[in-house]
Amino acid sequence: MAWKVGAAVAAILGFVGVGVGGDGSDPRRAGWRDSYRPPAEIPFPAANTYSAAKAELGRRLFFDPILSGDRTRACATCHIPDLAWADGRARAATRQQGDMDLRTPTVINVAWQDGPLGWDGKFPTLESVSAMPITAPGNMNLPMAEALARLSADPEYVAAFASAYADPAITRERLEAALATFERLIVAEPAPFDRWIAGQEDAIGDSAKRGFDLFNGRAGCAGCHSGWSFTDNSFHDIGVASGSDIGRGRFKPTSVALQYAFKTPTLREVGQHGPYMHDGSVPNLEAVINLYDRGGIDRPSRSRLIKPLHLTATERADLLAFLATLSAHADRDVVTASFATRPPAP
Fold first, then answer.
1. CATH of the domain at 270
2. Same domain assignment for residues 144 and 63
3. Which of 126, 247, 311, 346 gets the most CB atoms within 10 Å of its CB?
4. Are 97 and 151 part of one and the same domain?
5. Where does heme c 2 bind (predicted)?
6. Do 6 and 57 belong together in one domain?
7. Which residues are registered as beta bridge partners of 282?
8. Residue 73 belongs to what domain range?
9. Considering its fold, how many domains does the chain have in total?
10. What is the mean pLDDT of residues 186-200?
11. What is the percent of the chain with per-residue pLDDT over 90, rounded to a whole number?
12. Contacts of 235 (CB under 8 A, 6+ apart)
């Protein structure tokens, strides 16, 4: 089952000969713009179809510290709506206020995250994600059996599960499914970039438009950050990680290309979820552009898409201007997050 959110995504057009338009634009711009049109619907898997009752149950669970051992943490402790559904830290905080190994990823547009999830792809599906933070001693620290017992002892949760599943039994699978259903409704709100894609020419400035051409053209950013959600859902070594920080390589040890490869994150609301990279090692977007400009660490596993760019100061400014158009800057209520519980009309 799915819910409509806009026009269908067009196929990404192939490259053609490059010239310069009469206004200085790349002649491929129109084709590139078509590839960023919003998808027609929010996808829900056949094994976990959408229902309003299930989504509301998932919303309540997401914000409820009942799922942590000492009742002080919830999913929303790290995935904060006001911080673009991340936490603004270089690395996620442990319950003892230390640092975890990886940065908290945003859950914006997670419904379109195909294949393995997590920076290193440790989760095969969205439904499989929640058990790890709930049970991890350094995170929410609540054994799954105790989590289910707590929920089963709460009459309101018993009623909510019965409404969502037509059966009062509270199981791990149903807990995971409800959380995933709510999370799939966390969709990027329209940003200036989307208004431009829809045809409003003055929605973004000339510098941002030049940045869009550069992003899709010579800089090659769209090789990984493609389509409406700005991710190819794949894993790449971009020349950042080193040593034992091996990313996808921990699961694919024979693949040189995946040795230091981490998941391509969405760029939606990118200005709101720094610092950047899997470990928060790059402090701001200026530094991100500098990293790509110099090409990162040159090694056999580095993606063939990554190479020194030799950008001018104007080109760097244009890329920054373009990235700024991907943020809606919408006010969000960390307590209710009500916008994310309302699926669009079918």
1. 1.10.760.10
2. yes
3. 247
4. yes
5. 221, 224-225
6. no
7. 276
8. 46-118+125-187
9. 2
10. 96
11. 85
12. 120, 121, 247, 248, 258, 261, 262, 263, 264
- Binding-site sequence positions: 75, 78-79, 221, 224-225
Angle at 37 between CA 34 and CA 43, to 5 degrees: 135
Taking the C-alpha atoms of residue 235 and residue 224, their distance in angstroms, rounded to an integer, is 9
User: Token digits for 330?
Assistant: 């919408």
Q: What is the DSSP letter of 15?
A: P
- Other C-beta atoms closer than 10 Å to the C-beta of 173 total 12
pLDDT for 2: 45
pLDDT at 22: 54
**Residue 25, pLDDT score:** 87
The CA distances from residue 113 to 38, 68, 107, 174, 187, in Å, are: 15, 26, 9, 21, 12
Tell me which residue of 54, 31, 59, 36 sits closest to 44, measured CA to CA. Answer: 54
Between 10 and 150, the more confident residue is 150
Q: Please provide the size of the chain in residues.
A: 346
Residue 330 inside a domain? The answer is no
271 residue type, one letter:
G
Nearest of 179, 90, 89 to residue 133 by alpha carbon = 179
**How far is residue 236's CA from residue 90's CA, in Å, rounded to a whole number?**
20
Residues 269 and 300 both lie in one domain: yes
Compute the distance between CA of residue 154 and CA of residue 251 in angstroms, rounded to an integer: 39
Report the largest interatomic distance among the alpha carbons of the chain, rounded to a whole angstrom. 69
Q: Which residues are known binding-site members for heme c?
A: 75, 78-79, 221, 224-225
Is 273 found in the same domain as 203?
yes
Is residue 163 assigned to a domain?
yes
Q: Is the pLDDT at 118 greater than 80, yes or no? A: yes
